[in-house]
Specification:
This protein is mostly beta strands. It has two helices and nine strands; from the N terminus they run E-E-E-E-H-E-E-H-E-E-E. The chain has a domain of 136 residues: C2 domain (Immunoglobulin-like, Sandwich).
């Protein structure tokens, strides 16, 4: 399989649509080679913050071209112009699509540098602005002899080295009024005694959990004896005499009353 090296120089652009209202927009171009699934290549120019709608880059880049894909007209060179923004993300200004077969057919002897200008197509589909670039192809080389171009630098293996050991400086000596605590042992912890084991589990008993307390001293007197059958030693009182307690009964009233005449009617 044979390859060619395509050298592209993104030169400038003119009359682009201005996406900034109060300041000059910074414009850059992302160039990608699509159509070859095994070698997707992409490169990016620097950001021109002074040109505004007519930026200038003069940025060279290289791509590896598969001759078989070029003959089948499968390779497309895409230029995507973008506005660099710190807030809100970058925005697309427009893009240009060029067939690599068309570039290869118009090189003539293939040694002279070719200059082209293409209209920029906005995301809305309208044309606004012109992109200027130059290109040329190198001689055909075999797959085993070709060198890796700059546009494929992202496919190179990266050697990862361990990070250097950072030695922190030791603190200054302590000169305070209180003594410093002792240094910890090599294990990093002080040998504290383990906590005591928890008491064994005892099931809960309903009712009184503890026995009632004993009575205080002084409450241990025996109960009083029962009273005797006849009382507490006193004889019962004698019955009253037949005529009372020594007083005669009152005499009956006289026949005529007590000397008072009856009341008149």
């Amino acid at each position: 399989m044979e390859y060619r090296t395509l050298e592209v120089n993104v030169r400038s652009a003119t009359d682009l649509k201005d996406l900034n209202l109060f300041s000059k927009m910074g414009v850059y171009v992302v160039v990608s080679l699509s159509g070859d699934s095994q070698h997707e290549q992409k490169a990016k120019t620097n950001v021109d913050r002074d040109g505004g709608t007519s930026p200038s880059w003069n940025f060279p880049m290289k791509f590896t071209i598969n001759e078989s894909a070029v003959r089948q007209n499968r390779l497309i060179l895409e230029f995507k112009l973008r506005c660099d923004r710190s807030l809100g993300g970058d925005k697309d200004i427009g893009e240009v699509h060029v067939s690599v077969q068309e570039l290869l057919n118009s090189i003539g002897d293939g040694k002279a540098l070719q200059f082209l200008s293409y209209q920029v197509t906005q995301p809305s589909g309208q044309h606004k602005g012109v992109l200027n670039f130059s290109y040329r192809f190198s001689e055909e080389v075999a797959a085993s002899e070709r060198s890796l171009p700059d546009a494929e630098a992202f496919e190179r293996p990266v050697t990862v080295y361990p990070s250097p050991t950072v030695v922190e400086p030791s603190p200054p000596p302590y000169d305070g009024p209180y003594p410093l605590p002792p240094a910890p042992p090599p294990g990093g912890r002080y040998p504290y005694a383990p906590p005591p084991p928890p008491p064994p589990y005892q099931p809960y008993a309903y009712g009184y959990e503890y026995p009632p307390p004993p009575p205080p001293p002084g409450y241990g007197y025996p109960p009083p004896p029962p009273p005797p059958p006849g009382g507490y030693g006193y004889p019962p009182p004698p019955p009253p005499p037949p005529g009372g307690y020594g007083y005669p009964p009152p005499p009956p009233p006289p026949p005529g009353g007590y000397g008072y005449p009856p009341p008149p009617y």
